[in-house]
UniProtKB/TrEMBL annotation:
Residues 199-370 form the Phytanoyl-CoA hydroxylase-interacting protein-like C-terminal domain. Pfam families: PHYHIP_C (PF19281). This is Phytanoyl-CoA hydroxylase-interacting protein-like C-terminal domain-containing protein.
Amino acid sequence: MAQKKVKIGRKEFDYNLPNNPDINRFIIKVHNETANQRSIYFFTKMEEWILMANDEDCVFMTIYGTRDNGEVLSKAYHKPATSGEIENLSRSMDSEILNKIDCEVKERVPLPNVSHPVFIPNASQERGTNFYVQILKHGNTEFIQLSTSVNNEIKDSTIELQSRRTYKCKLYKVDKHDEQCVLTASSTDLLKTRNCQRDVEKLMEKATSYIQGHSVYSVNYLYRNKPSCHPTILQSKKTGIIAKYLKDNNGDQYSSINNNICGLHFSATPANSSGDLPKGSIFGDYRIMIFPEYLVDGCHLYFADFFCMPRKKHWVTLVLTKAESEEDDFCQNRLVKLDIENNPFFYKVGASYKVTSLDVEILYTEDINLNEMRLKVGFQEKIPQLVKTE
């Protein structure tokens, strides 16, 4: 078995390298019990493994073998023995008591089907380069990476996340002295990754299959129901604006738009093929009715979700975003863009609009200016009968 010299000050120890050709990098986490200090070192297999002299009295070490992307392939706990070798331990003997970092972790999607973690401290960082160590774990998969902060975000991670997973995330702030990274503070959080574009494509395939043979209805209006006492309605009486707000967690719990973009929900589904609207709604007693073109023109249309509600009622969620808006940028790499004239859900035929006969909701990611809408032909406000759920 191949060995590697671990040099700590005046001492040297032999470490048995794991027999795994995919391991290209090694990380040594040191607990210096005498100094009550914890450090992390990053090495390649070919480099000399030299730990700082002030870690000569270290008692416990955790040695990780990783791929180039930081994925951990081996992990073992050790302590230097008097014989000059490294003694194996069955578990970590290190206990951490560090200052806390106030930060949150989010998912960044720079390309379709590619996502990385981004740690965002909630307090301004010190000037200059700040160094951090990220540790992410899901099941038996673990990643470790050294990163720096830019514009108060720690986002130079190359760790590729899997969709629809919950990761345990650990962030260490470190003081870097040559190869030694001394841990000074830490933060622990959970990151729930959402559907990637490939997941959304699969949902769209299921929705397309489900609606085969369904009727097609005319869409005379896009309409929205809310209670008269809803905060957005009360505020609109003062401002003339129905303000968009954060999308809730309804639908697929892993939908990327949940709690991430703002909008206003509209229904595209009429009561019958002629386009007549339902007389009542379970969603509230105040209704606005808008010609589809007033919302669709100048917007991009995306497929976002397909889910089943109680009593086997199926819903499709589409998103309408203004071109080049913040919401449009968010959706481009996460959702599936639709052609308004060629899709099976909600589409334009000449000057009219059609919808397949299932419940199609459209999240419109802009405010509604009631003062302007009231001047447009066809806009209506009504208070229909409130339908009670059974």
